[in-house]
């Protein structure tokens, strides 16, 4: 997977449009900061890219082909959002074992993965006992286990302390270096300063800016659109 495109994507709920004619592209080895006020359409765009909802019009393309929600695409897609999609009645290790089975990944290095995300001491605790930050770490462990090629991150720093945010920065930078496609919606400026290569700004469901970026440019966009 080298390129994911939104082609004239629109999404309406009854008579209200959450997105209007959004056309943009996300490339391998790039991290796109998705910026906009609450209600600008950021989460809607991420849901459409993940094929979790159907567009009113337009389409999502992967490497020039129409995206379809088949097993191959699901295996290549990693999502971290407000909903954790974890099983609260299972332990951290059990959740990752299920992911490994679902995506046909080896489950032999789960201890190393749990240590990587800082959950080695909580491996056999039930997820319902976790803090929000621990849940977020386990959700990120899931997409690492999947070896997802497309990362769609909606406020991934939620619940993380400063040390956790630095760790998350490192994981996003590693994904970028490995040629993953990363799209991040976040109010955490330092996280985007450290990782973003591009910025996409939505205002009332429309793209008003899409270009490579740097920390100074990001600050300007944050000040104007957050």
Question: Can you walk me through this structure?
Answer:
The chain is α/β, with parallel strands linked by helices and 226 residues long. The chain has eight helices and ten strands. It has helices spanning 42-49, 71-76, 92-102, 110-116, 132-146, 162-177, 189-195, 215-225; strands at 3-13, 16-27, 30-35, 57-62, 65-66, 77-80, 150-154, 181-185, 198-203, 206-212. The chain has a six-stranded mixed β-sheet, sandwiched between helices. Strands 2-1-4-5 form a four-stranded antiparallel β-sheet, with helices on one face. Helix 6 runs parallel beside helix 7 (189-195). The relative contact order is 0.20. The mean pLDDT is 94.
Task: Provide tags for this entry.
alpha/beta, 8 helices, 10 strands, 226 residues
Radius of gyration: 17 Å
Mean pLDDT: 94
Strands, count: 10
Instruction: Estimate the strand proportion.
Output: 25-35%
Global structural class: alpha/beta
Which sequence of SSEs, written as H and E, runs from N to C?
Answer: EEEHEEHEHHHEHEHEEH
Shape descriptor: globular
Helix content: 25-40%
What's this, in brief?
The chain has eight helices and ten strands. Helix 6 links the parallel strand 7 and strand 8.
List the topology elements.
Layout: E1 3-13, E2 16-27, E3 30-35, H1 42-49, E4 57-62, E5 65-66, H2 71-76, E6 77-80, H3 92-102, H4 110-116, H5 132-146, E7 150-154, H6 162-177, E8 181-185, H7 189-195, E9 198-203, E10 206-212, H8 215-225
Parallel strand pairs: 3-8, 3-9, 6-7, 7-8
Antiparallel strand pairs: 1-2, 1-4, 4-5, 9-10
Helix pairs in contact: 3-5, 6-7, 7-8
């Amino acid at each position: 997977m080298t390129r994911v495109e939104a082609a004239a994507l629109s999404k309406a709920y009854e008579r209200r449009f959450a997105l209007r004619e959004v056309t943009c592209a996300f490339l391998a080895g790039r991290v796109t900061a998705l910026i906009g006020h609450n209600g600008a359409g950021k989460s809607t765009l991420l849901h459409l890219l993940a094929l979790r909802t159907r567009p009113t019009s337009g389409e999502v393309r992967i490497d020039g082909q129409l995206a379809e929600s088949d097993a191959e695409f699901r295996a290549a897609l990693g999502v971290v959002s407000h909903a954790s999609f974890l099983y609260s009645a299972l332990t951290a290790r059990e959740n990752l074992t299920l992911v490994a089975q679902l995506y046909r990944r080896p489950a032999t290095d789960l201890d190393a993965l749990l240590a990587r995300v800082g959950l080695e001491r909580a491996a056999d605790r039930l997820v319902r006992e976790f803090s929000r930050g621990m849940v977020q770490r386990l959700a990120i462990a899931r997409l690492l286990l999947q070896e997802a090629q497309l990362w769609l991150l909606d406020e991934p720093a939620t619940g993380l302390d400063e040390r956790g945010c630095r760790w998350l920065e490192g994981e996003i930078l590693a994904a970028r270096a490995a040629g993953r496609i990363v799209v991040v919606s976040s109010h955490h400026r330092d996280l985007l300063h450290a990782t973003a290569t591009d910025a996409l700004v939505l205002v009332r469901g429309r793209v008003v800016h899409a270009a490579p970026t740097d920390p100074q440019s990001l600050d300007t966009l944050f000040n104007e659109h957050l």
